[in-house]
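Q: Here's a chain of 80 amino acids. Please give me its 3D structure as tokens.
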Amino acid sequence: MRKGFPDLHYDIKDLIITSDRIVARTIVRGTHVGHLWGMQPTRKKFEVSQINIEYIKNGKISEHWRVTDEHALLNQLWFQ
């Protein structure tokens, strides 16, 4: 991801922390200036929402789940 979007930035909008999990709702932004997924750089900027869920066991991340609005990402980079 950093090769495709060297300016990749995450803004945390909500953060929920319990004894065994962390949930973060973020807005992800960047500019497509490097090769990514076999695609040539478009030099377009994007902004999408993302949810990350981390399960914690013995003080370490034991599971990681992420949902990214990839439809919006593709629309902003290649289909506009």
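Q: Can you summarize the key feature?
A: The radius of gyration is 15 Å.
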